[in-house]
Amino acid sequence: MSDTAVKDEAVDDSGTVITPSQQLREKLSAFRFNDEMSPSLRRSPRGRTPRPGRYAKFEEVDSELPTSPSAAAGLSSKKRSRTVERKVKAEDSGAVQKKARASRSSSPKKRQVAPPEKYAHLDPLSDHLGEGSDMLDVLFCGINPGQMSATVGHHFAHPTNHFWRCLHGAGLTDRLLSASEDGTLPGRFGLGMTNLVERPSAEAAELASSEFTAGAPALLRKIVERRPRTVCFVGKAIWESFIRAAAPPSKSPHPPFAVSGSGSESTTAQIFPNGIGTGGSRTPRPSESPKRSPSAKKSKSSAVSFVYDLQPYKVVHDTPDAVVRETLFFVVVSTSGLVAGYQLPEKTKQFTLLKQRLDELRNGSLDTSAMVAIPSVMS
């Protein structure tokens, strides 16, 4: 052994030589794991209340298991991606539902014009005009036979229609009649029944606008032949279709009425352009047409609300044997149960006003001199 090696070695108490490697092992043995001196590992107290004890402090430290920065970043990234994904799905679902609701509310399904063969199995309704001329106080004109009415063969037969209850409520009949009694109206009460369009349909929207125009000449012929005191249009739309076809544009009064007051009902005098009318309760409600947007500009003519009352037109009967010399025109709102803007009490008031106008016409207190006479024959 060389002198250098002896210098690096040590000798213990027994004289045994201790090599450098043995010295290193003895030094490292001080850091060796000892079961008796080290606390035992325990389960993480996560999810339960830790019990106070000798090693409670160590348990808190051990429960927070260390993770590498890359692993922590990965977990955080996954959480963020799942949160964003759920949020996007929720937003997409909400957007789809909102779009569906807007589509249903803004663009309701509209019926198309029905071809003639769709309701070819239904027969038109018969008119009830009485046995001769000059015997009808009121000739009621509806739009066309509804599907229910055409099926049973009687006017205004749908159970939700208010026509028969309005007649009785206004005192035009002495009791509430059923639709099956429509044929008795001319002889018992001086009331007639007809329609502007003959062919039946489930809804008026299934009729073409040309059918309304085509029905005007036939209605005018019935008026000239039967000479009723008044013709009552059950619905504003059919009145407008008829008068556009029957009245010369140059003679159309404008505006038809000017109603004083702004309430839904008034008892002040009704003012026609030239003083037509005598006054009485009215229902100056907005027309049945869709509402305009607030930003739409209104013309002077649209500023005047349509009045369900007598209209400033008449048909003059100049035949020598005529008892009724003039036929006037009255308009009430449609009595269909689908007209939600007018309930039964409001509709009954309009029929009551019709009866009042009829009484004024009979006793001669109604001045019709300023009304526009429409031709009795349409070109």
TrEMBL record:
One GO-annotated biological process of the protein: base-excision repair, AP site formation
Region called Disordered, residue ranges: 1-123, 248-298
A GO molecular function held by the record: uracil DNA N-glycosylase activity
One Pfam assignment: UDG
Keyword DNA damage: yes
CDD domains referenced in this protein's UniProt entry, alphabetically: UDG-F2_TDG_MUG
Lineage of the organism: Eukaryota, Fungi, Dikarya, Basidiomycota, Agaricomycotina
Keyword Cytoplasm: no
Organism whose genome encodes this protein: Lentinus brumalis
Biased composition (Basic and acidic residues): 24-35, 82-92
Keyword set, alphabetical order: DNA damage, DNA repair, Hydrolase
InterPro entries reported in the protein's UniProt record: MUG/TDG (IPR015637), Uracil-DNA_glycosylase-like (IPR005122), Uracil-DNA_glycosylase-like_sf (IPR036895)
Compositional bias per record (Polar residues), positions renumbered to this chain: 261-271
All residue ranges annotated as the Uracil-DNA glycosylase-like domain in the record: 130-247
Name of the molecule in the record: DNA glycosylase
